[in-house]
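This follows on from our talk about sequence and fold. Please put the record directly below this note.
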Amino acid sequence: MSNDRYVVKHPDGWAVKKSHAERASEVCDTQRQAEIRAKEIVSNLGGGEVRIQGKDGRWRDSDTVSPANDPNPPRDRKH
């Protein structure tokens, strides 16, 4: 079971969604709020990946939340 979450544009702001889910786990006013909430959810579930979508629909960032294993540890120098 994957704990990954996605931050995507939503008509009411920004949504935190699980892969293939129809409904959002949470909807926030700002992308930053949604990102923080997604990381909290993933952390509470034991770690995983948080992917963030830009306004243009393209993936702009991805973060591994502990204690999950980072798939690209040497190249991820953003955080």
